[in-house]
Amino acid sequence: MFGQLFGGGFDPNNLPPQLRAALGDQANNPAAMQQMMQQAQAFMSAMMQSNPAEGSVNWKLASDTALQAYASEDPAVSESRRSAIADASHLAGMWLDNATVFEGTGMPLEAWTRRKWFDKTLGTWKQLTEPIAESVIKAITSSMQEQLPEQIKGMLGNSDQIFRNLGGSMFGAQLGTALGTLAKDVLGGTDIGLPLAGNTPGLVATNVQAFGEGLEIPEQEILLYVVLREAAHVRLFQRVPWLSSKLIGAVESYARGIHIDMSRIEEAVRDVDPSNPESLQQMLGEGLFTPQRTEAQERALKNLELTLALIEGWVDHVVSLAAKNLPFSEHLRETFRRRRASGGPAENTFASLVGLELRPRRLREATALWEHLDAERGTEGRDAVWDHPDLMPTAEDLDDPASFTSRRETAASEFEDFDAQLGKLLDGGFEATDDPQDPEDPDGPQEPKP
């Protein structure tokens, strides 16, 4: 059987009786069986080509799967479109200079195809998903090793590596499906709240054009607003260097506690219809590896959602200031708020893959906080909150923005009191009190004896 999977001739009559019984009438259909074996051969070939040095995921399979999803609808960017994006980028830069103290990156905003977006963001996807993939693959490998009969283990040789390759390929196929869907939906490098392309700003030209259809707003105004959002995100991530690592750290904390319900995988495999070529792909797209969350993961997820909300709230506020002269600014602002809060099909696909929903659930509260800080402290004071992770607002601050400053002042005062007391202790201790009681004599001073 394994020889046939790896390229040998296939004869249905050589199938084990148990497998023939499971396949039913399909076992007697040479065309259907040949098609099934061709699919299995392609998958197994990709699995065996997986390079462990490249990480847990079969990235070649992920790339090939993603390409199949978007390649047929990925037109080249015309020169006129590139020129329009460049003009919008120049104007957006000037407007943002008046709305934030964070300077521009100095890098021109690029016009991307869907393929270019995939290539530009793949490095970050690797960083984000490798910790999750490693946990998933360990779970799959452990479960398969436990269930595999000893004689089969001997036939397979290095079964541990084979199962790791299998898990990496299955995860890669799912991830490729998700990224292929994302490539058809995202507007730029920061559209889901993460700096996927690093400090390089860019827009997926055909997706921006599709986004504007049906809004009944001038195309130039939509383009300028989208450019403002992309440029604001990139300024924030570049000028706040600890922010990216905080986001990725939250994902890694989430990944460390992943537990996979293997019974779901076993049930899904049993339900695959050999006569339906799309059944395997459908199985891979149904969140097969979605983890069951632990308390630690729930905390990591809340931390991630809070950070995403603060980022999106700041961008929402700053862009509203920069775009105040656009006639449809408020309309576009509300459109993006709903889009980010609800999540599109692409984000839902990614959530089903790894169990992470990359959406800012408290966007409106976060925007209200930044608006309050702007009114209270001005632009420079507002943006200074990003100076250090310890200064960042908490969930309590989103509940009560007006008390943000007073809470910080109270905490600072308590720290100063503690620091003063500690300094006094280190400088020689505290003076003795007037209490006549001797600490070494709990009975205190004794009356003189007659």
Automatic annotation (TrEMBL):
Could you tell me the keywords of this UniProt record?
A: Hydrolase
Q: Where is the composition biased (Acidic residues)?
A: 432-444
**Its Gene Ontology molecular function terms?**
hydrolase activity
Which residues lie within the region annotated Disordered? 378-450
Query: Compositional bias (Basic and acidic residues) at which positions?
Result: 378-390
SUPFAM superfamilies in the cross-refs: Metalloproteases ('zincins'), catalytic domain
The UniProt entry, under InterPro entries, shows: Zinicin_2 (IPR018766), Zinicin_2_N (IPR042271)
Q: What Gene3D superfamilies has UniProt attached to this entry?
A: Zincin-like metallopeptidase, N-terminal domain (1.20.150.30)
The family database entries (Pfam families) matched by this protein are listed as: Zincin_2
Q: What NCBIfam families does this protein map onto?
A: putative hydrolase
Query: Which protein, by its recorded name, is this?
Result: Hydrolase
